[in-house]
Specification:
single chain; alpha+beta; GMP Synthetase, Chain A, domain 3; 3 strands; about 30% strand; globular
């Protein structure tokens, strides 16, 4: 993962009012995944994850850091 793209993702997450906890490129059930972990003092809902996912999706499409097919996952250790 390009450090510049990671910084862009972090900035986008923080613009939405969440803390950026990390990014991980891996595999799950044979499929490549890009997992973004976010948090917030008040907790993070599934709707919050969807909102962040949509904003990051556009950013990733524009910068195209991963050339192969992948699944974008936005999660939180405290999803409510």
């Amino acid at each position: 993962m390009n450090k510049k793209v990671e910084e862009l993702i972090k900035k986008k997450v923080e613009e939405k009012g969440f803390s950026f906890l990390g990014i991980k490129l891996g595999k799950s059930r044979g499929e490549r995944t890009l997992e973004i972990t976010i948090d917030s003092p008040g907790g993070v809902s599934i709707e919050d994850c969807a909102l962040v996912s949509q904003s990051i999706e556009a950013l990733l499409d524009e910068n195209d850091p991963i050339k192969e097919k992948y699944l974008l996952v936005v999660s939180s250790p405290g999803t409510s």
